[in-house]
Design brief:
Layout lengths: L5 H13 L16 E2 L4 E5 L6 E6 L5 E11 L5 E7 L8 E8 H4 L3 E12 L6 E8 L6 E6 L9 E4 L6 E4 L2 E2 L1 E3 L15 E2 L9 E4 L4 E4 L1 H4 L3 E2 L6 E2 L5 E3 L8 E3 L4 H15 L9 H16 L19 H13 L3 H13 L28 H15 L5 H21 L23 H20 L3 H21 L33 H12 L20 E2 H13 L3 H13 L10 E2 L5 E2 L5 H13 L14
Antiparallel strand pairs: 1-13, 2-9, 3-8, 3-10, 4-7, 4-9, 4-13, 5-6, 5-8, 7-14, 9-12, 10-11, 15-16, 17-18, 18-19, 19-20, 21-22, 22-23
Helix pairs in contact: 5-15, 6-7, 6-8, 6-15, 7-8, 7-9, 8-9, 8-10, 9-10, 9-11, 10-11, 13-14, 13-15
Length: 627
């Protein structure tokens, strides 16, 4: 995957350079005079008063177009003056110069900085690449390189600030003159990456329909997807993609024939669906969410939450939302594939593990199972059935029916004398001492869904049994949760919870009093960056880091209860937190940056449903079952 490529690819690049591929004929002792790729050491500070660095070089070219330097900065702002000089110590000998704004690079960070310069040069003549920085806060800017020496290498120079003397250094600065191909940043080595961007583990996905490769922040800087596909257009203009039959990406020229074939296939898949969202950001976001969900969906129906360690498992909850989103966007096969996978991984007692490995071989660890899956999977089955082509859908539902029966029977059997299920971890992945709304509300949706599906298939006894259970559960929620505004737990001791939205369509028929509870909960969970946290239990670990799934719940709930303006505002906020590739993050930092994993399939699915729900007719919810 991309996240492991940097050192390997940098080594490959150095090998290419040392062999002289693409370099000038005047390389001496096999060492190119116009570039050096290694940057394993922070060598020369260039921001202290009077300090500077210079790198001797020669080029076979007759004209400069750009240079690149590997820099790091702990300063949020400042400027770096880059010049090409004929004489090292004489600023008047500069034939080209440009000032780089550190803030424009994204503030503190590190990586290759490409600097456009345009000047005629004399081939195989010595010049000096000069750099000097000024920062308002006095923090350093450092030119990196390597302490590995090489015979015949061009000389690197340091000017000591107080003394003002130039001294040759044994180390070699990292630089390229007229970088091309693999020398361009973002191909085998990262462009300058703001430190703040590194709070995200991933930034995007490359996929060939079988394999997936995560794009890390280091390789997303300056890149953009080619519209309608999972092919990246790099800062160099070349393309990175994952060819068919390959597990690692390659960089090819723009408009490569095989890459174009992959893009055409992706565009045809999109065109076959019903993509929500008006033209512009909403439509673009929907297309990107669908492409990312398609990449996360495996051939066996498992659905990775994200493509990163600890997220690359299939959760019944996340995958159920994905199935519903696929279904409402016209991708029946993808939706049904997920449902079949969940049927195949159901435990003998009718429950599900919290998550499974993508090959379906079972849970990856001893994380406790979660009862909410017994609501989410039947609910997703009902939503799929509502959208599925009528021809053959009853037979396909019959194939899922054993799973439905076991799930609904377990849910019904779990209810206590008050009509409520036991305490269980829910989407917080945390246990509670008493029943939580994040379990009770999905179970209500699932029982209602199962009863309605059973009645449609003529399974009257099953339908009646589950309808009775649904009514008992509804009454229990009304007695214990509703008077408190649907808090996290029935005892009211753990604050509010964004799962209040699960009481609204498209999950459940909204009970009286829910609109106020939605408003009050949203206000309580709203944070300064504009998103919401999952809940305000004092023991919860969120701080001011907001969650896009929890925020998006409110868009669905408000759309389902006729509050279109509120729903649109939430959707707009979530879409505003897409990263530079247009992907939706799992969380958002207090200062508004994408965090954790990007994209998160669950958020993609919820946003697609919210876009669909705000277009006109709200999404349906299973009817309240009647015995």
């Amino acid at each position: 995957m991309v996240r492991t490529r940097s050192a390997t690819l940098a080594t490959a690049l150095l090998s290419t350079l040392l062999c002289g591929a693409g370099g000038p004929a005047s390389a001496r002792d096999g060492v190119p005079p116009d570039g050096q790729a290694l940057h394993d050491a922070a060598l020369i500070g260039i921001a202290a008063a009077g300090s500077a660095a210079a790198q001797e070089f020669r080029t076979a070219d007759a004209r400069l177009s750009r240079v690149s330097l590997y820099l790091s900065s702990t300063a949020a702002g400042g400027r770096v003056r880059v010049e090409v000089r004929g004489t090292r110590e004489d600023s008047g000998s500069a034939i080209a110069s440009r000032t780089v704004d550190v803030a424009a690079l994204g503030g503190a960070g590190a990586g290759w900085v490409e600097v456009p310069l345009d000047a005629a040069v004399t081939p195989d003549t010595p010049y000096y690449l000069f750099a000097q920085a000024t920062t308002p806060d006095g923090k350093p800017v450092v030119w990196h390189g390597t302490r590995q020496t090489a015979a015949g290498a061009p000389v690197s120079w340091h000017r000591d600030g107080p003394a003002g003397r130039w001294e040759a250094v044994a180390s070699r600065l990292a630089f390229h003159v007229n970088p091309a191909g693999a020398e361009r940043c973002g191909e085998t080595d990262p462009c300058y990456v703001p430190a703040a961007d590194r709070i995200a583990r991933t930034s995007g996905l490359l996929s060939n329909g079988t394999d997936v490769e995560a794009v890390t922040p280091e390789f997303a800087v300056g890149a953009r997807y080619v519209t309608g596909g999972n092919v990246l257009r790099l800062p160099s203009g070349r393309w990175r993609y994952l060819p068919a039959g390959r597990a690692a990406s390659v960089v090819v020229e723009a408009d490569d024939a095989l890459a174009l074939e992959q893009i055409a296939e992706s565009r045809a898949w999109l065109a076959a669906g019903r993509i929500p969202g008006a033209a512009g950001a909403r439509r673009e976001s929907a297309e990107r969410a669908l492409l990312s969900m398609r990449a996360l969906l495996r051939s066996n129906g498992s659905f990775a939450a994200a493509w990163s360690p600890f997220w690359d498992f299939s959760w019944p909850r996340d995958s159920s939302f994905a199935a519903v989103a696929f279904a409402h966007c016209g991708y029946d096969e993808e939706a049904y594939r997920i449902l079949r996978y969940n049927a195949g991984t159901q435990r003998a007692d009718g429950t599900w593990e919290a998550r499974t490995r993508l090959d379906g071989s079972g849970p990856p660890d001893d994380r406790p199972w979660q009862l909410d899956g017994n609501g989410w999977v039947p609910w997703a089955t009902w939503q799929w059935y509502r959208t599925a082509p009528e021809a053959g859908r009853a037979a396909r539902l019959e194939a899922l029916y054993p799973m439905l029966r076991k799930a609904a029977d377990h849910a019904a059997g779990s209810l206590d004398a008050d009509g409520l299920p036991p305490a269980s971890p829910d989407y917080w992945e945390l246990s509670t001492d008493t029943v939580n709304i994040g379990t009770a509300a999905p179970l209500l949706a699932g029982l209602n869904a199962a009863a309605d599906l059973a009645r449609g298939l003529g399974r009257t006894q099953d339908a009646t049994r589950w309808a009775v259970a649904a009514q008992r559960l509804s009454a229990g929620i009304e007695r214990r949760f509703a008077p408190l505004g649907y808090p996290r737990t029935a005892d009211g001791l753990h604050g509010r919870d964004s799962a209040v939205a699960f009481m609204a369509p498209p999950f459940n028929q909204a009970p009286a009093g829910l609109p106020r509870a939605l408003d009050d909960t949203y206000a309580a969970l709203l944070r300064p960056n504009g998103g919401v946290i999952p809940g305000d239990d004092p023991d919860a670990p969120w701080g001011d880091i907001t969650w896009t799934p929890s925020t998006s719940f409110f868009a669905l709930a408000w759309a389902g209860t006729g509050e279109r303006e509120k729903a649109d505002a939430v959707v707009d906020w979530v879409l505003s937190k897409r990263n530079a590739l247009g992907e939706l993050p799992e969380t958002v930092s207090p200062d508004g940056r994408p965090k954790a994993v990007v994209p998160l399939g669950w958020t993609d699915a919820i946003v697609l449903l919210a876009l669909r729900a705000t277009e006109g007719t709200p999404l349906p919810a299973p009817p309240m079952a009647r015995p």
